[in-house]
Amino acid sequence: MDEERNSLKDLQGCEAKEVEKDDISKLYLDSIANIKEGTIVKGKVVAITPKDVVVDIGYKSEGAISISEFQDPDTIKVGDEIEVYLESKEDDSGMVVLSKQKAERAVGWEMVISRYGEGDLVDGKITKKVKGGFMVDIGVEAFLPASLAASRAFGNLNQLIGQTFQFKIVKINKPRKNIVVSRRDALQQQKEEDKKKVFDALQKGAIVSGIVRNITDFGAFIELGAGIIGLLHITDMSWGRVSHPSEVLAIGDNVDVMVLDFDKDNMRISLGLKQKTQNPWETVDTKYAIGSKIKGTVVNLAPYGAFVELEKGVEGLLHISEVSWTKKYANPNELLAIGDRIEAVVLDVDKQARKISLGLKQLEANPWLDAETKYPVGTKVRGKIRNLTDYGAFVELEDGIDGLIHVSDISWTKRVGHPKDVMKKGEKIEAVVLAVDANNRRISLGIKQLTPDPWDEIALRYVQDTVLPGKITKVANFGLFVEIEKDLEGLVHISEIPLAEGEKLEEKFKVSDEVKAKILKVDSIQHKIGLSLKV
């Protein structure tokens, strides 16, 4: 009985072992069936050779992966579990075909497309140059066209290989698992973001540092960082006179400037340099009192006067009329030159308009103050003819004081067309003082007044209707001037000239023609004689 029982147990044990073996075989076959080509599977490193890493993925054979597919082959050791890509379950030699790089790419692709989309920024390393551009490792290989690798001003693109940058994803092709990136767009986006940060931090009145990038006639362009350029206008460089910005700044200069105004929308910034210091014009009314004497440097000359720098940023105008009491200058450069150090008197201060009027002649006594006493009306004077004009002659009575002889005061009787007809420049003559205007610095002189007015005697001498010979001195469209004695002329109006129908005055009479004229009227008040040829 016991033997039967033992035999039965042995039989039952054998049956159990057979069942267990069948189950294991079934499980093994099921696991092999679940391994599919084109998927990522886990495997264990079972051996490492100088060329390959042998991996067991639980299949009937192992696979060898080139050691070059591992980024850090020195860290791989037997027993490590790794993820690999199953390309094929069996090659010609009966081994499975595995790839570590393809597994990483597949994992990287899923990771990248799950985290990033088109337009996003991603870090990556440029690994190699290919046709038309470069390959970039961003967790998966992406293509960087050469045209999008850098800004236009960049030099040799090959120097980018091996470097890590930020890129912008411009295109994702999921079916083909292709990604196109742009470093240029990333740089531009970063630049715009940096600009926004700078503008967000700007405040009017703040002092910022920058570099002079360009200089023009109207100002200088200052780079404040992040590619932001501000304009420093020439008028905001100095409180004083600046002829050209290059007098103050040079390209490449580091300069601290004040933010005067900015426009975030158009990204424009107005900068100031002079505003860092106090406006010197705020205290000019107390520093330069009217009537006080000052010293300054001539910094500019104009036809109307000289600009004198009193201190940095403060200039006064010395008008040409305030240079001398006596001499008349056509241009201030006849007396002054740029760089001259001079003394002057403050005549007026306009703080609001930033104008200071200066005088040079006020340092000396005004010789015209006693002109009325020195040259009373009726006094006979002698002087040299300094200048001749159409309307008269200027006679120098003393240094800086001239008198004017008007053309009408040269002769009682002679008709004088121009002073040069009867006198010469440099000639010394005698005259009578007719009027003195010290305020306007004018003295009127006369020559004819040296002798009595002869017109009362002329009126007695030339009785109305008297006929006498004469000589034509001028033919005018309104009549003839006829000399009836030396330096004495009368006018024959055209109405008193007998002319045939259609006959013209200038055709019938010529200068120097002798005629007989009749006295019509002698006006001793107006100094005129009326004649007639109708005798």
Keywords for this structure?
elongated, 535 residues, 40% strand, five-stranded antiparallel beta sheet, OB fold (Dihydrolipoamide Acetyltransferase, E2P), alpha+beta
Characterization of the model:
The structure is a single chain. The longest helix is centred in the first third of the chain and has 33 residues. It contains seven helices and 30 strands. A five-stranded antiparallel β-sheet has the order 3-2-1-4-5. A five-stranded antiparallel β-sheet has the order 8-7-6-9-10. A five-stranded mixed β-barrel has the order 11-12-13-15-14. The protein folds into seven domains: 29 residues; 80 residues, OB fold (Dihydrolipoamide Acetyltransferase, E2P), CATH 2.40.50.140; 74 residues, Beta Barrel (OB fold (Dihydrolipoamide Acetyltransferase, E2P)); 73 residues, OB fold (Dihydrolipoamide Acetyltransferase, E2P); 84 residues, Nucleic acid-binding proteins (OB fold (Dihydrolipoamide Acetyltransferase, E2P)), CATH 2.40.50.140; 84 residues, Beta Barrel (OB fold (Dihydrolipoamide Acetyltransferase, E2P)); 78 residues, Beta Barrel (OB fold (Dihydrolipoamide Acetyltransferase, E2P)), CATH 2.40.50.140. A hairpin with a 4-residue loop joins strand 29 and strand 30. With 535 residues, it is of the alpha+beta class.
SSE layout:
Elements: H1 2-34, E1 39-48, E2 52-56, E3 63-66, E4 81-88, E5 97-99, H2 100-115, E6 121-130, E7 133-137, E8 141-145, E9 164-173, E10 178-182, H3 183-201, E11 207-215, E12 219-225, E13 228-233, E14 254-263, E15 268-272, H4 284-287, E16 293-302, E17 305-311, E18 314-319, E19 341-350, E20 355-359, H5 371-374, E21 380-388, E22 392-398, E23 401-406, E24 428-437, E25 442-446, H6 455-461, E26 467-476, E27 479-485, E28 488-493, H7 505-508, E29 514-523, E30 528-532
Parallel strand pairs: 13-15, 18-20, 23-25, 28-30
Antiparallel strand pairs: 1-2, 1-4, 2-3, 4-5, 6-7, 6-9, 7-8, 9-10, 11-12, 11-14, 12-13, 14-15, 16-17, 16-19, 17-18, 19-20, 21-22, 21-24, 22-23, 24-25, 26-27, 26-29, 27-28, 29-30
